[in-house]
Each structure stands twice: as structure tokens, then as C-alpha cells.
């Protein structure tokens, strides 16, 4: 039975695709509340509000505000428990911290480096 579950999961994983479902020009201030409004428009247009189980965002602190704004609109969403940070941004932050370099630029004086 376990191998059947594994095969089903592998089949589903092999069929996953990235699809752009919406592109919008943002009017007004690029605030978290404004962005939440745009996201809610997309969520409502596709009727997927009850299917969301997490939010993935970059690691800037203002995304907590965005997640909370979505939580207020989607009652089943718990922003504190269902916001996933982007692993790519996390790795970039660690690499920058430990090397002092970011995108080819030297950010920190060599004597400030932790290693």
C-alpha cells in the first residue's frame, strides 16, 4: 500500500506546472493592504479562497502585514502559522551575511565579516 501512495504522489508531482494566472499594474501606494486587495481580487476571481493553505512571500517584514490583511479577508487562514518564507531569499540573506558580498558587490568591510 505504501508503494501505491508513493507512486500516486510521484505522478501528481510530475504533473505539477507553474502557471501565471494574473498580471496587474498596481495603482496607488504599494502598501500591504493595497496588495492584499489585489490578491483578494485574484482569489475571488478564481474561487480559490477555501483552497489556500499557505502564503509564500519573500522575507521582508512587511509581508507579515500582508499576510494579516489576507487573514482578515480569509477567515480560515492563520497568518502566523501559514506564511512560508521564501527559501531563496533566506539563502541569499545567509550568503550575504557570511561573505559580505551580494550580486557581485562588496557590502561589508572585510574586518566586519564573521568568519
Helix content: 40-55%
| Distance between the amino and carboxyl termini | 50 Å
Biggest sheet statistics: 2 strands, parallel
Radius of gyration: 19 Å
What is the residue-mean pLDDT, rounded to a whole number? 69
The unreliable regions are: 1-6
How many β-strand stretches? 4
The number of helices is: 5
Instruction: Give me the secondary-structure category.
Output: mainly alpha
Q: What is the overall silhouette?
A: globular
* Percentage of residues in DSSP E strands: 5-15%
Q: How many domains?
A: 1
Structure overview:
The protein has 115 residues and is mostly helical. The chain has one domain. The protein is built from 5 helices and 4 strands, in the order H-H-E-H-H-E-H-E-E. The chain has helices at residues 2-15, 32-46, 62-73, 79-82, 87-99; strands spanning 55-57, 83-85, 101-102, 105-106. The strands form 2 sheets. The protein has a two-stranded parallel sheet with strand order 1-2. Helix 2 packs across helix 3 (62-73). The longest helix is centred in the middle third of the chain and has 15 residues, at 32-46. Mean pLDDT is 69; it is low at 1-6. This is DUF659 domain-containing protein.
Which key terms come to mind for this protein?
single chain, mainly alpha, two-stranded parallel ribbon, two-stranded antiparallel sheet, 5 helices, 4 strands, 9% strand, disordered N terminus
